[in-house]
Task: inverse folding
């Protein structure tokens, strides 16, 4: 995975984040030495210690501090890798609703990664159940933008019932509705074998997101790059047509998702551009970050897919084209026989095994779009994927 994935301005701003956060949220000297252990504890609560986590965990000063100094900059880094790949068309006076926003993470990432939007008047409804996180987000965004932002940001304190798809606060229909690292707090409590439960959760999420959006809105969800997240997003995608939504990215097509329970759509990036101070903090907390991994789905509202169109798409001949088939790279590189390397990709024909020399496959970055040459309908015996060569 190549370095240099961030534009210079974005990288420069991310480099300043640790010092900006230190200045904005100073830690008294007697508590500073406890920061790495607080980060490790919060990481435990967010992963294998979820059962010990309360709904108000960010109301605890030490955990909020750990979040702001560690998880916030890493989440901003991750989003800044993703946002340039999203064709988000936002116009003056558009509304953005961010559910489970934490300390205004998405708004801050958009400010960093899309400098072309900074002078466009946008209205944000940033919804979270933690008042301390919202207050910290307001303070951080003001520091990040040096108090010069023309964006109108409304922090909204709200407990969102994700299982029942309920939200009681009144917000404007949004041109962009986003949920970043939100749904995993619910679906990770569902057994990995409970496919029906995960499907219901995804259907509820689609209903909730669509209910907050305008007629031609974008809907974005970003989740950790683990199997359960990939499966949730696949089921979320499956629920889109019912709400007049179609996948826009990373999908290159609107046909049923071709990935199976053994594979999931995720994107991984190495972290050579990460601020050195943040890397040192990661090491001190015992959480070295060699790469960032996430799954995501961007959808666009529009006309509902008709039954006839759906059946036509499903019955389409699956013979691979020899050229011109855009394929999204969706996995890490791995070795193949005969000194070749591969990555999995996805296109309208289904799952694709992209092959080539090691150097070429490693340069074919995660999340990129390629136009490979298909091997006359040949399939990989192990995965069933169509075989194609990256030129």
Result:
């Amino acid at each position: 995975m190549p370095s240099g994935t961030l534009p210079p301005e974005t990288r420069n701003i991310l480099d300043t984040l640790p010092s900006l956060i230190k200045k904005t949220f100073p830690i008294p000297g007697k508590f500073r030495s406890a920061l790495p252990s607080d980060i490790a504890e919060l990481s435990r609560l967010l992963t294998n210690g979820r059962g010990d986590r309360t709904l108000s965990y960010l109301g605890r000063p030490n955990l909020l501090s750990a979040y702001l100094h560690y998880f916030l900059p890493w989440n901003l880094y991750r989003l800044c890798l993703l946002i340039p790949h999203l064709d988000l068309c936002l116009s003056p006076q558009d509304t953005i609703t961010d559910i489970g926003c934490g300390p205004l993470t998405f708004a801050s990432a958009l400010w960093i990664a899309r400098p072309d939007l900074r002078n466009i008047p946008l209205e944000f409804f940033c919804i979270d159940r933690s008042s301390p996180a919202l207050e910290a987000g307001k303070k951080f965004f003001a520091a990040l933008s040096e108090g010069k932002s023309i964006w109108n940001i409304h922090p909204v304190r709200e407990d969102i019932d994700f299982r029942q798809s309920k939200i009681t606060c009144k917000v404007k229909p949004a041109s962009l509705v986003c949920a970043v690292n939100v749904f995993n707090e619910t679906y990770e409590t569902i057994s990995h074998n409970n496919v029906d439960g995960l499907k219901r959760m995804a259907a509820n999420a689609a209903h909730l997101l669509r209910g907050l959006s305008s007629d031609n809105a974008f809907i974005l969800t970003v989740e950790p790059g683990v199997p359960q997240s990939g499966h949730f997003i696949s089921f979320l995608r499956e629920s889109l047509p019912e709400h007049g939504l179609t996948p826009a990215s990373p999908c290159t097509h609107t046909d049923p998702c071709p990935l199976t329970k053994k594979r999931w759509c995720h994107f991984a990036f190495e972290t050579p551009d990460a601020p050195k101070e943040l890397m040192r903090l990661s090491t001190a907390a015992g959480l070295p970050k060699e790469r960032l991994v996430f799954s995501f789905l961007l959808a666009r509202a529009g006309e509902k897919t008709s039954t006839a169109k759906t059946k036509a798409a499903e019955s389409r001949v699956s013979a691979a084209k020899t050229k011109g088939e855009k394929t999204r790279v969706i996995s890490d590189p791995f070795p193949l026989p005969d000194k070749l390397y591969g990555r999995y990709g996805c296109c309208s024909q289904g799952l694709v095994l992209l092959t080539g020399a090691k150097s070429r496959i490693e340069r074919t970055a995660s999340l990129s779009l390629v136009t490979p040459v298909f091997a006359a309908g040949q399939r990989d015996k192990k995965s069933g994927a169509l075989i194609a060569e990256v030129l």
